[in-house]
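User: My notes are a mess, but here's the protein and pyridoxal-5'-phosphate's SMILES. Can you give me a structure?
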Amino acid sequence: MLNIKYELVSEKKAKPDWDNLGFGKYFTDHMFIMDYDAGQGWHDARIVPYQNLSLDPACMVFHYAQEMFEGLKAYRTPDGSIQLFRPDKNIERMNNTNTRLCIPHLDPNDVLDALKAIVNVEKDWVPVKEGTSLYIRPFIIATDVQLGVHPSKSYKFIIIMSPVGAYYAEGIKPVKIFVETEYVRAVKGGTGFAKVGGNYACSLIGQEKAERLGYSQVLWLDGIEHKYIDEVGAMNVFFVIDGKVVTPALDEGNILPGVTRASCIEILKKYGYTVEERKLSLAEVVDAYKAGKLNEAFGTGTAAVVSPMGALDTETEKMVINNGEIGKVAQKLYDTLTGIQWGRLPDEFGWTVKVN
Ligand SMILES: *Cc1c(COP(=O)(O)O)cnc(C)c1O
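Assistant: No problem, the inputs look usable. Here's the predicted complex:
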């Protein structure tokens, strides 16, 4: 067991309006912190009141972006208990990201202990209403005070949490997607497979451009040929072509290995769908559309679970997918995943972990 020191608040914050939580706007009463120093390893695990950090402006994270993060949720089940969804997957990915950024690994058992401990302290922040959850944001920052370009020798691992509203408060609405051919999100050999803030900083300009043109997200193409499909916004992407489900393969390291993606593939296989993980070109999608064989397209991620595309536009092609409505495959995945996550369906895969 990770030895955690507790310094609890004497007075809790007023809770937000549970009907208007939005995403990442409110933060709980406490946070988890653990420090790393070379020679000492990770030490001083503690849960303390949520507070500002005081950091020297020369801390490496501010200059060279040696930072990683994760994202998962705690869900309230019908019997009032609280559970996590496949936290082992997030923890494994966390260490894969750490390897890429030269950040020291965390002991997976310590991270799970920390997640359970902080969620237990904040039980009354796990919302009850349909579709709501407590979003958990673990992250690590490099804290060496120096401007030389080297991996830092000191870090902070922090977990903050935010109650979030139902992503689809007004029902699932397919979104309009713009195919980005100028900017790229990731390249082979880069950091696309790692969950790092820097990837997001580089994607903002494409997102802004898409919004300016009236779209809600960007479809990212590969960084070398600008031909193959990578991801949609900050989600993994699936297409249903002639009844088969196709998603870009992970093997080139430019796609974030989503926990939702992996879970969707397992569910689809269990229910007898053909799933292909392979290279998928934009041209193949456009051809399928023209042949009337593009049945569905959707993104997957922890925040929205499944986000159907109603329209997919390139500079020259305007594609309306499934009449702008959610398709059968996306609906099946959404119902199955949310059913398991919120404990309304039996967890036949053994994916959920109780925290209390
Ligand atoms: C986090 C993330 C995803 C989705 O991962 P999940 O584990 O399913 O939440 C997909 N793409 C990118 C770029 C991400 O950062």
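The chain has two domains: 5-164, 175-341.
User: Great, I'll file this with my notes.
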